[in-house]
Amino acid sequence: MDKKNAFTLVELLVVIAIIGVLIALLLPAVQQAREAARRMSCTNNIKQLVLALHNYESSFLVFPTGRVGCDGACDPKSGPSTSGFVLMLPQIEQGALYDQFAPYGPGSAFPGNLPSTVLSQRPDAFVCPSSIMPPSVTLSGKEWATSSYAFCSGHYGPDQGIGAKVKWDNSGLFIYRDSRKISDATDGLSNLFVIGEVVDGDKPTSSNRWAIGSRLLDSLRSTRNPVNTLPGMGEVHKPYDHDLNAAFASRHPGGANFGFGDGSVKFIPETINLTVYRNLGRRDSGKVKSY
Amino acid sequence: MIQAHFAAMIGVGFVILAGCGERGEIIVPVSGTVRLDGAPMAAGEVGFITFQPRAGRAAIGKIDPSNGAFTLSTNEAGDGVLVGEHEVTVSVNATGAGGNPISLIPKKYQEFATSGLNVTIDGPTDSLIIELEGPLKRHVKTYDPAALGDDPGF
């Protein structure tokens, strides 16, 4: 009997089984690859923003202030709550949008009669691809665009209530009213957070509108709570109706991206030591910040 | 011969699956009471207790203003704290003049470096006791944020 040159059924089944196992291994990995790509895109956004901060610094010799005006507790009282992200719009090639905001600068009320069509503009650089927050939120009769990023105001957070330490005397580079310089960062720009990620910018516990700067909330966050502390959790302060934790958080599993003052962007894991994390938010801690 | 191949394949499969387990960190539910000078702390203001492990994510719990009770949370509400040695801080603040905090307990308890509180967590517990020494500030004048001219941001 001559030998047939063909596969047996068992050989075929074995091959199919092996292919099945390989696909089973690969499919979840593909989903991770998508998240990795989103994270990379998010990293790029932060890098562009830090670059824009440095371009701003080159023009004006200071970083943009976290919030243009102060409120009742400091002079000038009732200043505009315009955030530093508005000031740096020309540096991210949004000069036309900046021109819409320009008449509402220092000495005038913000947002005044600035229409929702301007306030709801959401430049791509302010949105992390992993973000699932709605693009805008309606507050006080205006529609505001939300953002995935906030300045690091310092390491003072809900523990300092709504006092001076979270407004114009916080330990980072971005605060109420005053602008800070590169030379203020005596720990070195490579050891200092300037921009981090935020989730749920539409919720009252975690409001994050890029056009507004507000303590424990919009555009000004702190490293008091651990990274990825979700809204309402951790150490909170409740000045009015909502628990505010001022925390940085992201939708990336296991941590969040942070832009450092030197332009590097690093993924900070949730497991980072809390003391080191807090110190990374301080410009002049004098402490070693290895992690 | 074919059976041997199958056995080898199944073996390889188990080895691959074995790599997909949970991470080695163990979080156990922990709750308890903060006591001040030997009695449950009734500060009248919400406080916060923070557990910082040697390595890994810190846990935070809200302290009940009436009886000092707290439940720790690491990743999700009430999930607990990592097993191991922890440095602990406790802060209880009232809103004072200008919106600035007034610490109702001695300030040293607010910092890991100065609190002197160290706790080892071996397993789940619902009766962890944290002992503090006073004095507790009482009858502190508190301020309404709206009356301070604070911009609520909305």
UniProtKB/TrEMBL annotation, chain A:
The keyword Transmembrane helix applies. Residues 31-274 form the DUF1559 domain. The chain crosses the membrane at residues 6-30. InterPro entries: DUF1559 (IPR011453), N_methyl_site (IPR012902), Pilin-like (IPR045584), Pre_pil_HX9DG_C (IPR027558). Keywords: Membrane, Transmembrane, Transmembrane helix. Gene3D superfamilies: Glycoprotein, Type 4 Pilin. It comes from the Bacteria. Pfam families: N_methyl, SBP_bac_10. Signal peptide: none annotated. This is DUF1559 domain-containing protein.
